[in-house]
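Ticket #141: bound-state structure for heme C.
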Amino acid sequence: MKLLHTMLIAAALSISACDYSPKSSLGFRLPDGNAEKGQQIFAQYQCASCHVIPGRDDLKIDSEPKMSVVIGGMTTQVKTYGQLVTSVINPSHRISRYYRSEEYSDDGVSKMRNYNDVMTVSELIDLVTFLQSQYEEMPNY
Ligand code: HEC
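RESOLUTION: The complex was predicted; output attached.
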């Protein structure tokens, strides 16, 4: 019993230690953005040359798209804000299993373009607000 007690305390400690580790994203929060401006930024950076948003044919780029990685639409797993920010500024951090083939990544490195030296933080904030608004949670039956 005593051993179990000690184990429970150790488990509780390790969970809280994890939350407060220096590399934790706890406390990370960007200011609220503007989805309309974000849509313009999506167009400006030609994200649609590799991405499709279901139901948003208005955002398509005329030329042949390089790839058709889906963003948004109906899903059981709406992306969190943190996942979306990470997808834009650190796309190789976690590549969804659908995109681990050679078509989309090279040895675990995403073929997504890197925008970190060109996109402003304000643009990133608006862009992510726009992206988030494009996901719709599928109702559970
Ligand atoms: C050269 C092609 C290319 C361009 C341009 C591109 N991406 Fe991507 N993007 C990818 C690929 C490939 C993936 C899938 C692999 C990964 O997660 O990195 C991806 C993944 C993503 C994801 C995660 C999708 C998911 O369900 O896991 C988001 C969000 C995203 N991109 C946003 C953007 C935005 C916003 C832009 C424009 C600023 C952009 N991308 C431009 C290729 C591209």
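RESOLUTION NOTES: The radius of gyration is 19 Å.
TICKET STATUS: resolved
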